[in-house]
Structures are given as structure tokens and as C-alpha cells.
Amino acid sequence: MSVDPMAYEAQFFGFTPQTCMLRIYLAFQDYLFEVMQVVEGVILKKLDKMPGCKISPSQVRKCTEQFLLFMKDRFDKLFGKMEEMLLQLVLSIPKNVLLPEDKVHEQFPYSPEQFQALQEEIRQLQLQCRAEAAAEQALRAELEEQKVVKAELEKILQWFDDLEKIFREQGIGSLQESLAFLTQSSKKLQVVLKEVEQKSEKLKLRDKLM
Q1: CA–CA gap between residue 205 and residue 34 (Å, rounded)
Q2: CA 51, 53, 54, 60 torsion: positive or negative?
Q3: What angle do CA 119, 124, 128 make, to 5 degrees?
Q4: Coiled-coil ranges per the record (predicted)?
Q5: For residue 103, what are the domain limits?
Q6: Is 102:95 a contact under the CB 8 Å cutoff?
Q7: Number of domains comprising the chain
Q8: Is residue 153 part of a domain?
Q9: Burial class (CB within 10 angstroms; exposed 0-12, middle 13-18, buried 19+) of 187
Q10: Whole-model pTM?
Q11: Please, what's the b/e burial string for 134-144 (b: 16 or more CB within 10 A of its CB; e: otherwise)?
Q12: Alpha carbons within 13 A on the beta-carbon side of 52
């Protein structure tokens, strides 16, 4: 059998020419075995009708096997020549012939260097696509976080609106004024608290001295 992979022919036919030849060989071989079995059966029937015949079935089988080996040897030699002829003249595509799906290569030929540069460009584009996909994923995560923060801010604004409404209903004034008043009161309380702490420290120190 031929060792040439014949990949271009396999692309055209849908199978490798060697596979086709192997199937033909096995089919012929099976047919040869079947013919020899039929011939052996006919010989045995003829011998049964011949009284006094001293040829036994085992001798017939031995002769059949010998003849089969002879025929197989002749068949292998003939098949080798037939295979060579079919692979060269029937199941092969000439070197100057392009399949329809490969016509584009004829219109846009590429040298090995150009093909290598194209491969490198494709690799760079793949890396760029991956980086952009990662950046997009990070952006989506940030947007989700911003949605959460926005929801919290809206809650706080709603709380201030409700608080200002309560202040107006109670006649306290605007929310801004109320917050300013609370801030001033807080500062005054902090001053008073600091004075109380200082007086307390002085009292503790005097108690220790006494």
C-alpha cells in the first residue's frame, strides 16, 4: 500500500485513496475465499458420485488451500500493479489543479514570511480581545458597585427629604438651619464636656494630694 497521505485527494473525495484501495483489496480477497469454498464443495460432490474414488475430503481441503495460496500470491502481485495505476491515474489530483474551495489561495497568494506575519497579527489581536474582554468585565463590576452606591445615596436623600418635611410640619424651620443649629449645639456641648473633664481631673488630683 502507498504511504503517501494524499491529503489533497482526501479533501476532494471525502476519503483517502489508500482506504478505498484497501477496501477493494479486502473485497476481492473475500470473494476469492468464497469462490474457493464453492469450488471445494463442487469437487466433494463430484467425488461422492464416483465409486471407488480414494481421494479423501482432507486431501481435497489440502489441495484447495494450496491452490488458494497460489491464487492469493498471484492476486497480490496483480493488485499491487492495479493499485499503483489507480493511485496515479484515477485517484490522484494533478499538482497544477486547485479545488474550487482553494481558488482563493490562487487569487491571494501568501509567502511563508507573510503567513507568519499574519499569524503573529492574529495572535496580537487575540491578546487584545482578551484584554478588552477583561476590561469590560471589570467595568461591568464597577457599574454594579455604582448601582449599589446610587441606591444607598437615594435612600439618604429620601431620608433628608422626609426629615425636612417633618421639620416644616413642626415649624422648626429648614433642614439646613436645623443642622447648623445642631452643629453649634454639638460644639458647645463638646466645650462643656471638656471643661467638666478638666474639673474632674483636678478634683481627682486634689483627692490624691489630701
Answers
A1: 125
A2: negative
A3: 145
A4: 115-206
A5: 7-107
A6: no
A7: 1
A8: no
A9: exposed
A10: 0.44
A11: eeeeeeeeeee
A12: 0
What is the residue whose three cell numbers read 478588552? 132
User: For residue range 23-79, what is the model confidence (pLDDT) as tens digits?
Assistant: 999 999 899 889 888 988 888 888 887 777 777 888 888 888 898 889 889 988 889
In the 8-state DSSP scheme, what is residue 15? Answer: S
CA dihedral 200, 205, 209, 210 (to 10 degrees): 10
Residues 75/76/82/88 CA torsion (nearest 10 deg):
170
**Region for residue 4 given its phi and psi (left: phi exceeds 0; alpha: psi -120 to 50; beta: otherwise):** beta
CA distance 87 to 169: 102
User: Cα–Cα distance between 122 and 119 in angstroms, integer?
Assistant: 5
Confirm whether 152 is domain-assigned.
Answer: no
Record the cell numbers describing residue 67, joined without a space: 491452490
Q: Residue 137 domain-assigned? A: no
**Helix, strand, coil fractions of the chain, as percent rounded to 5:** 85, 0, 15
Q: In the structure grid, which three cell numbers stand for residue 58, read together?
A: 482432507
